[in-house]
Design goal:
With 264 residues, the protein is an alpha/beta fold. 37% of the residues lie in helices and 15% in strands. The chain has 10 helices and 8 strands. It has helices spanning 51-66, 80-86, 105-116, 131-138, 158-170, 191-201, 220-224, 232-235, 240-256, 258-262; strands at 16-18, 35-42, 70-74, 96-99, 120-124, 142-147, 175-180, 209-211. Strands 1, 2, 3, 4, 5, 6, 7 and 8 form an 8-stranded mixed β-sheet that branches. It is globular and about 45 Å long. The protein binds adenosine-5'-triphosphate (ATP) and magnesium ion. The site of magnesium ion (MG) has 5 residues, from helix 1.
Length: 264
């Protein structure tokens, strides 16, 4: 499992805590353990960078390998995640999926999440900086920004950086995670240089920005899995892509929920 480097995010977050019981209680039964919800928006103003791919596969990995109750909110008016799920044959998704392309998510989502007693709510945001994304960020504890590792590809991401700056100015506890996504096989930029450029471009004053160590490479299985309504863990569980998503999920968990989930 990766550990967070010194650039990792500072402690303290704004999780919604439900069913709260006193931490002073000498004995906590399973039912009385405080339930902690973590909401994560997956966003980038640039289209086609892998937002939905990360959201769907992360949702599956959190359920299957970390035993978490997960809600995936499809906040894209194009409903890509919903279309992906609709291709499934027979067996049900291991996580819940709802459509939520609304500008008032920050008002409606907490109640939905609380009622479902979810451990994680993932919000798959649309491309472009829209009011929906702003609303999703307002209700999120953390954000994952998928970034293709080529300098020119950053251009379409300028507006998400602006948005993150706005949100962090009033919500400095927002955790920002950058994930190299869709890395081409023979990436011309040296990996270290590419990672430094990503960190420079996505610098947000007042926020700790973490560039995840795991990089998601371009992989044809990731392109084909949605056609069968499957996550990569169902479609090609032994692939490099599945391994990368496993590792990405562990890193995200380690950074967001180090104590609770390590304790089981
Ligand atoms: N690592 C990858 N390797 C190969 N194909 C990928 C990878 N990541 C995403 N894709 C494919 O690229 C396309 C765009 O990916 P995806 O829909 O996840 O991006 P997005 O950022 O959600 O796009 P949008 O901005 O339109 O919502 C899809 O066809 C997807 O299957
Ligand atoms: Mg998408």
């Amino acid at each position: 499992m990766h550990t967070c480097s010194s650039t990792r995010l500072r402690a303290g977050r704004t999780s919604l805590v439900t069913n709260h019981t006193s931490h002073c209680s000498p004995v906590l039964s399973a039912a009385s353990v405080p339930h902690v919800l973590t909401t994560v928006a997956i966003t980038n103003s640039k289209g086609g960078v892998g937002k939905t791919t990360i959201a769907f596969n992360l949702a599956h990995a959190l359920v299957s390998f970390h035993n978490q109750k997960v809600l995936l909110v499809d906040a894209d008016p194009h409903t890509s995640a919903t279309a992906w799920a609709s291709q499934r044959n027979g067996n049900r998704l291991p996580f819940n999926l709802i459509q939520g392309a609304h500008e008032t998510l920050h008002r409606s989502l907490p109640a939905v999440a609380q009622e479902g007693r979810y451990d994680f709510v993932l919000v798959d945001c649309p491309a472009g900086v829209e009011k929906i994304t702003r609303s999703a960020l307002l209700v999120s504890d953390a954000v994952i920004v998928p970034v293709p590792p080529a300098a020119l590809d950053f251009l379409g991401s300028a507006s998400v950086v602006e948005l993150l700056r706005d949100v962090v100015a009033v919500k400095p506890e927002l955790r920002v995670m950058l994930a190299i996504s869709r890395k081409p096989p023979r990436n011309r930029l040296r990996s270290k240089d590419a990672r430094n450029s990503v960190l420079q471009f996505f610098a947000v004053d007042g926020a700790s920005v973490l560039l995840l160590k795991t990089e998601i490479n371009e992989n044809e299985y990731l392109t084909r899995a949605p056609g069968e309504g499957k996550s990569i863990f169902e479609f090609k569980p032994r692939s490099n892509a599945a391994q990368e998503f496993n590792s990405l999920t562990e890193e995200v968990v380690e950074c967001l929920r180090p104590r609770e989930m390590a304790a089981g």
